[in-house]
Amino acid sequence: MKYFDHAATTPPYEEVTRTIAEVMARHYGNPSSLHRFGEESAKLLRRAREVCSEALGVKPGEVVFTSGATESNNLAIKGAALQYESRGKHLITTATEHPSVFESCRQLERWGWEVTFLPVNKAGEISVRQVEDAVRSDTVLVSVMHVNNETGIVQPVADIGKMLKLKYPRVLFHVDGVQGFGKVGLPLNESGIDLYSLSAHKLRGPKGIGMLFVREGIVLQPLLAGGGQEEGRRSGTENIPFAVGMSKAVRLAKEGEGNTTLKMKRLKERLIGEISAMPELELNSTLDGAPHIVHFSYPGMKAEALLHMLEEEGYLVSTQSACSSRRSEPSRVLQAMGKSAEAALSGIRISLGDEHTEEDIEGLLEALRKSISRVRHLKGEKKS
Ligand code: PMP
Q1: Which of 239, 255, 271 finishes a domain?
Q2: Which residues form the Aminotransferase class V domain (predicted)?
Q3: Residue 214 belongs to a domain with what CATH number?
Q4: Which terminal residue of the chain has fewer beta carbons within 10 Å of its beta carbon, N or C?
């Protein structure tokens, strides 16, 4: 089986799983304990935080470990909204955010906040100008994802951040960086970003751990009440094995960034070239999007049926995104891009990893051609 669903989750590096098992077995002390086992764990946690902060080019104290990017996004948005309520109750985000951002904003709407959901253009992008025009005197936070998890479209977050810092320094800027880190460069310190979410399992690390970069000086209302771990920002006994595993994955992703991007770009070019020549398919990704995601629709065809045909040929892909694919509703992201309900129901996402080769791509394309001709044949039979 060839796995082409890296935007959903990635196979963990062997080095990462080995380290996690070792740390779990040997260093089980609670980092809050005062004895030597506790101190050992605290040391491992400190080191993991340092490694993550170095990879991001930020300070260790600005890294908060969470249970994943869903929690990071919830903490950034609701934590900031609740903390800075006295500044105003208005937020800005986009129509194509991940559900963990989108639904956090919806929840705040129900709690009395006002949210502007910026519409995207046909390619799925927003502009700096749109954000600028939406800022009001009571705006507390802007949240824009770096790379869309369904289409791979890249939002101009660095330009948005710079504009906000220049013109509206009081407005906080959150970026969901889950699909961009290690694939599309983004210098946090030069991009006016105050809050930045990451997830380990999209970077060949473990599931169930993520982090939130919180710029020094920013206070968030904690979502979890408890023992005050993570400097009061995230209570709960720290997951030392996963923090260490995540730090390894983050470091490897950062070190491999240039090479991975170049390699994936070439493979994506090949995929896009071929898919755009297939008359049945409509491309929803662009060449200048993130290098690991290619998304297309097959209007008239149920995405799930095509997914299983490809699976029969030995290729695992995704319909929409993993978070939404169990619902059979048309993709919110594609609808926001103005695609027809038919196109939004028939989306297939191919997402690449650093292990893929040109041969893998040729195999996948062959499987796709074969599946399309099977559908053509079936449709022909139905008509006659
Ligand atoms: N944001 C984006 C853009 C994602 O792709 C995902 C994972 N589907 C998340 C947030 C949530 O991450 P996690 O699975 O770690 O909660």
Answers
A1: 255
A2: 3-363
A3: 3.40.640.10
A4: C
Residue 104 has pLDDT above 80, yes or no: yes
pTM, whole model, 2 decimals? Answer: 0.96
200, 150: one domain: yes
Range of the domain at 345: 2-8+257-377
94 lines ligand 1 (CB under 6 A): no
In tens, the pLDDT along 110-160 reads 999 999 999 999 999 999 999 999 999 999 999 999 999 999 999 999 999
Q: Is the CB of residue 224 below 6 angstroms from any atom belonging to ligand 1?
A: no
CA 254 to chain centre: 16
* Band of residue 280 on the pLDDT scale cut at 50, 70, 90: very high
Of the residues 74, 102, 149, which should be mutated to test ligand 1's pocket, given the most ligand atoms within 8 Å of the CB? 149
- Verify whether ligand 1 is closer than 6 Å to residue 174 (CB atom): no
Q: pLDDT band for position 316 (50/70/90)?
A: very high
